[in-house]
Amino acid sequence: MKTLNINQNESLGALVTRYPALRAVFEKHRLDYCCNGQQTLQQAAENAGLDVAALQDELAAAVQDAAAGTPPKDWSAAGAEELCDYIVDHHHGFMRRQLPRLRTLFDQVRAAHGEKHGDLIDALREVFDGLAAEIEMHLEKEEQILFPYITQFERHLLAGAPLPEVHCGSVQNPIRQMEYEHDNAGAALDRMRQLTSNWQPPGDACEKFKALYDGLAELESDLHEHIHLENNILFPKAVRLEAKVSL
Hints:
By secondary structure, the chain is mainly α. It has 2 domains: 12-68, no CATH class; 75-246, no CATH class. It has helices at residues 12-18, 22-28, 41-48, 52-68, 80-159, 172-195, 207-246. The relative contact order is 0.14. The mean pLDDT is 93.
């Protein structure tokens, strides 16, 4: 019996924005609520071969369980500057710690297991290196260009601060670039999942090998939340702020 009406025609992005506790369920079933967050719950369930009614019940139960404890932060109600600061401190900070750690683990695992698993490790490393390079540039563009635009728009509306000079015409232009890079990241994560059989290390894997796969899974989870916060919450906020400034 449903404890909450979860509309099957609502998008995954809208659902997880309103009910942050749903993220864990979407992750469990590998339902893309970030890069492809515009798909409806019904579409996502059908594509994944899931029973939509059973999924609705599971989602409703997750919301009820979260309500009984300490609910996750509702970022849709936060200001744009607060959200930008959180993304930089929490997600950008995680990436700047995790990427060097994973590079070291790749080197160690290649040295220990290259003879038997070299092809797998090399294929995985190639995808990871491309993803890591794009992420590092992505973080800089957000911190140096996009986030200052968004923050200054909000400060102008709230306190009359000077408007930023948007050299790219509109904040929507760098947003489109960030969304394109998010899609690239999602594709790279999918490819690494395929190569690793859903992060399952080989039977003879050492602890370093297991740590590498665990670290890649943590990278995936963090990126999913990072992209969700931007695609589904921050970027729409930024577009609305710019529209208000233009009135």
